[in-house]
Amino acid sequence: MNAVTESIINRGDLAHLVLFLWAGAATGACVHLLKESAAAHRRFDAFVREIARFNRRQGTGSSGE
């Protein structure tokens, strides 16, 4: 990795290196956020299923009885 960085710096492409690092970090952040969003969706879905199961056990339906 050091040789690659040195080569880029010697050629004057430091801006390209910085842009690549920024794009990589942004992509990594997006992937992390998507994983977290999917996990939150699964937790919420499990919560809603538990509420529905509780309501069925208590005999309360969606009719507002």
Features:
single chain, 65 residues, mainly alpha, 2 helices
Describe the structure.
This protein has one domain. It is rod-shaped, with a radius of gyration of 25 Å. The termini are far apart. 85% of the residues lie in helices and 0% in strands. The chain is mostly helical. The chain contains two helices and no strands.
Biggest sheet overview: none
How many individual helices? 2
Structural class: mainly alpha
Order of helices and strands: HH
Low-confidence stretches: none
Can you describe this structure in just a few lines?
With 65 residues, this protein is mainly α. Helix content is 85%, strand content 0%.
Summarize the SSE layout with pairings.
Elements: H1 2-11, H2 14-58
